[in-house]
Amino acid sequence: MIDFVQQTISGIAVGCVYGLIALGFVLIYKATEVVNFAQGELMMLGAFLSYTFIASLGLNYWLGFAACVICMAVLGMAMERLVVRPILGYPQFSIVMATIGLGMVLRALAGMFWGTDDLRIETPFSKGVVHMGPLVISADNLSIIVATALLCVILYSFFRFTRMGVAMQAVSQNMLAAYYMGIPVKKMFAAIWAISAMVATTAGILLAPITFIHANLGFLGLKAFPAAVLGGFTSIPGALAGGVIIGIVETLSGFYLPEGFKDIAAYVVLLAVLLLRPQGLFGGAALKKV
Questions:
Q1: Cα 136 to Cα 129: distance, rounded to the nearest angstrom
Q2: Distance between CA atoms of 168 and 162, rounded to whole angstroms?
Q3: Hey, CA dihedral for 120, 122, 123, 126, is it positive or negative?
Q4: How many Å separate Cα 227 from the centre of its chain?
Q5: Residue 136, SS3?
Q6: 3-state secondary structure of 112
Q7: Torsions phi, psi of 240, nearest 5?
Q8: Which helix (H) or strand (E) holds 56?
Q9: 105-135 burial by CB neighbour count: b if 16+ within 10 A, else e?
Q10: For 209, which DSSP code?
Q11: Per-residue model confidence as pLDDT tens digits over 107-122
């Protein structure tokens, strides 16, 4: 039972990272109906920037964290303006291929600038442990869970109580009506991409201490995509819940089941959910007037 609880806590920590990446998918899709397949690469780039600011330049962890988030917010807005906005209105497949290509470019650039060696950063939580009776919990895992919960509160407050957050919700619900009401839709799109990039960066920085930073880290986005679909793909709480479910299933399957099943556990869960509830766990059935 102790092993089960500890593996579950580890799964929740990993799932929080998946959930944050999935949250980026959902934020962009709700507002623009664009699926950003470069979301994992944004997380990877944020992790590399954290290494540059914290390990290479020697900045304080929290200062480096803030610098990474700001830089990636600017990059997110640039991606929306230079890559996505010019092809809005074209077939959805064009935008999908553009974001896939953008992810490949970012992965190649990361390899060019930071090399192919595995990198790590030290944090205030590195090597720390928390004892809860017989349980021994890594401080890094605990920090990921706490930071994710705090970020959820911040995002909820932003979308619920700020003018910009309410405007973003209006754009996601009815873009044309929001435009006629005087909401600057294009600026809202840029802001949503910036927030998505900031969330992905936070996931990358939180993940960096418990795993190695490398150019292929962005492939974790392929695990986060099932989490977004599992949660309903239009539900922000669903994205986080889907990520946690995927993380727990993956961790427990790696501990209890034969080797190799861990890598496919997320997709097995995804297929099961799509067969039983195609709209996802938190999504509603889509209705369209014809």
A1: 6
A2: 10
A3: positive
A4: 10
A5: strand
A6: helix
A7: -70, -45
A8: none
A9: ebbeebeeebeeeebebebebeeeeeeeeee
A10: G
A11: 999 989 998 888 888 8
Residues 243 and 21: beta-carbon distance below 8 Å: yes
CA–CA gap between residue 208 and residue 196 (Å, rounded): 18
Residue type, 166: V
Token readout for 51 is 């290494």
Burial grade of 257 (CB within 10 A; 0-12, 13-18, 19 or more)? exposed
Can you tell me which residue has the tokens 């992810």?
103
Q: Which two tokens stand for residue 160?
A: 């619920």
Please write the tens of the pLDDT for every residue from 205-232: 988 888 888 888 888 888 888 888 888 7
Take residue 289 and report the two structure tokens written for it: 């007037």
Two structure tokens written together for 19: 């959930």
Q: Hey, what are 95's tokens?
A: 């935008």
This prediction has a pTM of 0.87
